[in-house]
Amino acid sequence: MRVIMTKRFFDLLLTLPGILCLSPLFLLTALLVRIKIGKPIFFIQKRPGLHGKPFRMYKFRTMTDERDAAGNLLSSELYVAAQQDSLSRSCPKGQGTGTTCKIGYFDSY
Asked: Do the Cβ atoms of 29 and 100 come closer than 8 Å?
């Protein structure tokens, strides 16, 4: 029992400073997910853990739930193509080939 408590103490001792140091990056990622994809920011899923005990896994959401006119989910390629098409109309000439104009993606020429 003492070994488990010692291990837990060192786990917390090492992870808490890491989380604090990375929190600005986490906040920036959450903000970009909110702007680019919308709500919810996190994807939450129950998974089996140690000895079959379920736990919740939290990840930043990376997929959209955009649908076409027939109600089918859009693939990533179609979603990006639709985004690029709308950006090419709103970006200055020569800057509409990347996925965004303002957040730092480089255009491919």
From this structure: no
Compute the distance between CA of residue 31 and CA of residue 35 in angstroms, rounded to an integer.
6
Largest CA-CA distance found in the chain, in angstroms, rounded: 66
Helix, coil or strand: residue 48 = strand
Here the tokens at position 16 are: 């808490």
The CA angle 27-31-34, to the nearest 5 degrees, is 140
3 state DSSP class of 94? coil
At 77 the pLDDT is 60
Selection from 54, 49, 32 nearest residue 103 by Cα = 32
The pLDDT of residue 109: 42
In three-state secondary structure terms, 81 is: helix
Token look-up 């604090």 returns 20
Q: Is 46 helix (H, G, I), strand (E, B) or coil?
A: strand
Cα(98)–Cα(76) distance, integer angstroms? 15
